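Sequence design from tokenized structure. All designs in this work follow the same two-part layout: the structure record, then the generated sequence. An example of the structure record is given first.
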């Protein structure tokens, strides 16, 4: 069986930046085992598989090299950027069916925005539980902001640290992060500083070793959740929330820029959009899927 996989870099700030994703445009004939095998062979943090849908324009499933996940922000951006490049879609609002629900996609020239779920603010985590896993001290955290699990489709722990220097100096213990991620049923840690390189909203690092992603260069879902967290805790106001910019990937030499738009009604977030661009890199062909 012949399967074509396109590789793209989503959220790229430079030609070397962004987060790579694989995209299979015709995946209706593939089994779960075959999709997982392709994701393992591609080797990226996520590969997207586009299928027909009776509920939306497309059904998209997302696989890491380890397992299927409900949603992936950067792979969604890659998927719809590729569909636009192939002239399979036009500018406008589309819908994608995912395991996280039916989500809107806004295609706006070279930028793709995806709707995420409205936020859920979950457990606040004791800072003592986090220090050893990141090899930092309590003094490295922003004292007035909590460490909290937030979800706009996928659950991550939001972890505020005081400065870029402290963010870059983190030496993560991946086994401990994976154990805490399993304990709290989350994807991983989203660690951020309000000090940034380019006057952005925040600068971030993302660790998800439970899903075989030690560090990720651009994470759409996590930054959508972070935008909601920042609004909920008064770091940003309603006027600022309409156009937010998050930096990520610099610690990996993969500069990335993730855009987030929040819609606020009566002081409550009623819509979350995460967006960016994607660059097509390669076209791969697999003739034999199951090893």
């Amino acid at each position: 069986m012949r399967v074509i996989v396109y590789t793209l870099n989503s959220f790229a700030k430079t030609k070397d930046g962004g987060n790579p994703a694989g995209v299979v445009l015709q995946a209706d004939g593939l089994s779960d085992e075959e999709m997982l095998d392709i994701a393992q062979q591609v080797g990226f943090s996520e590969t997207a598989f586009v299928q027909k849908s009776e509920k939306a324009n497309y059904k998209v499933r997302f696989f890491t090299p380890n397992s299927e996940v409900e949603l992936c922000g950067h792979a969604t951006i890659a998927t719809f950027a590729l569909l636009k490049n192939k002239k399979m879609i036009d500018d406008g609002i589309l819908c994608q069916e995912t395991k996280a629900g039916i989500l809107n996609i806004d295609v706006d020239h070279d930028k793709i925005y995806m709707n995420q779920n409205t936020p859920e603010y979950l457990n606040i985590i004791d800072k003592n539980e986090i220090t050893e896993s990141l090899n930092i001290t309590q003094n490295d955290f922003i004292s007035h902001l909590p460490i909290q699990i937030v979800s706009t489709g996928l659950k991550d722990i939001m972890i505020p640290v005081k400065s870029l220097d402290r963010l870059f100096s983190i030496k993560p213990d991946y086994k401990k992060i994976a154990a805490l991620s399993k304990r709290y049923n989350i994807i991983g840690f989203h660690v951020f500083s309000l000090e940034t390189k380019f006057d952005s909203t925040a600068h971030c690092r993302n660790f998800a070793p439970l899903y075989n992603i030690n560090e990720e260069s651009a994470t759409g879902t996590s930054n959508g959740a972070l935008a909601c967290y920042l609004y909920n805790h008064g770091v940003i106001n309603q006027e600022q929330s309409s156009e937010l910019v998050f930096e990520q990937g610099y610690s990996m030499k993969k500069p990335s820029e993730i855009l987030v738009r929040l819609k606020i009604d009566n002081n409550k977030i009623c819509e979350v959009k995460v967006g960016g661009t994607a660059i097509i890199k390669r076209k791969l062909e697999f003739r034999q899927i199951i090893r």
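Residues 73-85 form the longest helix (13 residues). We note this feature because it recurs in several other targets discussed in the main text.
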